[in-house]
Amino acid sequence: MKVPHRLYLSEEQLPKAWYNLRADMPEQPDPLLNPATHQPAKLEELYPVFCEKLAKQEMDSTTRWFDIPEPVQEIYKMYRPSPLIRAYSLERALDTPAKIYYKFEGNNTSGSHKLNSAIAQAYYAREQGLRCLTTETGAGQWGTALSEACSYFDLALTVYMVKVSFQQKPYRKAVMQTFGADVIPSPSDTTEAGRRILAENPETGGSLGCAISEAVEKAVTSEGCRYVLGSVLNQVLLHQSVIGLECEAAFEMIGDYPDVIIGCAGGGSNLGGLIAPFMRDKILGKHDPRIIAVEPASCPSFTRGKYAYDFCDTGHVTPLARMYTLGSGFMPSANHAGGLRYHGMSPILSKLYHDGRMEAVSYEQTKVFEAAVYFAKKETILPAPESSHAIRAAIDEALRCKETGEAKTILFGLTGTGYFDMTAYTAFHDGTMKDYIPTDADLQKGFDGLPQM
Amino acid sequence: MKVPHRLYLSEEQLPKAWYNLRADMPEQPDPLLNPATHQPAKLEELYPVFCEKLAKQEMDSTTRWFDIPEPVQEIYKMYRPSPLIRAYSLERALDTPAKIYYKFEGNNTSGSHKLNSAIAQAYYAREQGLRCLTTETGAGQWGTALSEACSYFDLALTVYMVKVSFQQKPYRKAVMQTFGADVIPSPSDTTEAGRRILAENPETGGSLGCAISEAVEKAVTSEGCRYVLGSVLNQVLLHQSVIGLECEAAFEMIGDYPDVIIGCAGGGSNLGGLIAPFMRDKILGKHDPRIIAVEPASCPSFTRGKYAYDFCDTGHVTPLARMYTLGSGFMPSANHAGGLRYHGMSPILSKLYHDGRMEAVSYEQTKVFEAAVYFAKKETILPAPESSHAIRAAIDEALRCKETGEAKTILFGLTGTGYFDMTAYTAFHDGTMKDYIPTDADLQKGFDGLPQM
Lengths: 453, 453
Description:
The structure is a homodimer. Chain A is built from 18 helices and 15 strands.
């Protein structure tokens, strides 16, 4: 089959079930722990924070497939399938023998893959009769996605937006408001967690970990309200498996299979979803693709973090998860890839990385934006800074193929568009963009705050 | 066939030729006139301003099909086909028996249909060995599209951006700069036309007509440079026929045909492209769809303008075109649909409207934004203000169907996304958005400036 520039599955080919990678992992990620007792968290303990169905998905490591509820499938059809794009133009420009593919998740109003889980989570909340949800957002992609989903299912929504992103992206707020959400810059004085963080560090630009604390606190102190999260959690990776499943079907159609799979990693939602069926093949010995997580050098959870139990948030209201972490007290610098500024990492991905099933690399942001602009000019898509980490790694891999003459098949996740990141692009053009690499001493401060187990 | 939510043609089904509606019009639009002699403009007279191939397309009313050059097809494949979307969710929300379809052109980085012509025009400029292009942009969609196209074909580009849009949409500028364009707010002091307009009206927010004058002047006074335009011209409607041709093929696949076709109209590029094959069917008596142009009440070229010879620009450097016009001196108010703030209208559409083959309606912008927000919440796409004019009319048509019980098939053009229009959405949410309707006296001033023929 001649590979088209954009490969779309038909509506009938869309996945009808999410794939739970844990069911095929020979060893499970370590369980969530109750932060008070350090005992494995019980399902019921999650209910005050999470919807029941979502809590069950979170804890379920044996059910291999979860049916996608009809109403969720119905909304998926409004913006899915996302195209698998063959980067012919980029390949020509790089003069590489590699075949480069990317799964483009940016063609929906939320501008990213985040909508895949937002819809699922809003649906289950509605099904449970809840009236409102709270969440945090970094770059604003998750907040936008959840705003859309809540608007569709008629749920009230409060979004705590990392302050630095709130300031860099004023229009993100306006989009969320268009869909009816209440958007609050975090840390804020609306929660105890926020007030405490502000007292310690009044000038902080905030972080995902801090916004999570606020959102969780708001949820558990509000009637008929629950908290939802756009990354890190097992349930989110489950929903995002739709990305990988569509890729798998598309590669079957074109009779190819990726040799290298690359995704940016903040909390791991996109990467976890993208690689799910390919990692299964790798675990089962059917294929052996290289799988590479790409993170910012300013927030290097995989490449410089510790595999340890830690809080998922800065305010220490969440359960403990064993993951690659920089410590929940680590405050990442104001990197423009707001969606990657998270101290921890998905426990599933952390386990896979720890077991040597995947690799990780980090890049400084100027290198990432060089790749972003190059890509935009060749492929006519303006990528989000987060996604551009994957672009950078994919380009470098394709250039290595040029040196070695290998015609590898490279797949990367283009998670979203950069429409709301023009402040960052302008800083790059102006030459005012800086790179931030934490010193070992910076990191040690974060590690010093890890809970004593 | 069960109609999917999103219908994509395959790459093989993409149009290989543009359709020239003029070849099937029983009466031709009146010819462009030389502004000095008032005689029909000769092909050679256009060469200082336009690329030769584009000038030929402009003047050619008999060639029915123009092959789309291979390199243009190649780029089309990077973002086309655009989906024809069945608005199931909107239909349910409106509880209408009507079937609502929209052709969504917003899923490319330029965010609109404008890329279809930008690529063609940049290609022909490159083919002719030119080094640079100039243009104007209102909402910024055309400027963004042309920036992408010029970056791809390695041409320098100067964009005169209507000042009010430049101020409302700072990030548009950043996107164009990412693709390498030089962006200047218009009116500016870089041209005689701009300086003259500024001297007369220093506080003006500019207009498309004024930005055109500047861009044309810049092109004819620069070496190896030509001017390109994103709307109004016959050549642009020709390139945009790809929209209508894809729709035609999609409706054939699902075995339906639109009863009503609706598009927003500023200069007419989207509407002219969308309706091309359907208007042909209407002219040839094969089908009889209603065709409706929707314009802002603040800039009502069709509904309150005169069918007369007029300049295409404010500075009177262009040929005269016979069209529906408010007079080239008419300065539209700062309506948020910057792409529709043009005093004139495509001569082809003007002729069709004059001959009674199509209708026109106008809406005030608050009514338009009501529809935009309603649509966003139901269809999960944030529409551009321009496109939302068509949404408003389509919703109203669907509501009439609800009253009459008619199961009409409605097709409208969703030309672009509103990511860069959040200032406008915020004004709507805040209740600070105003409606502007020119008085008869306002219009008379514009008409008084029409050239004496």
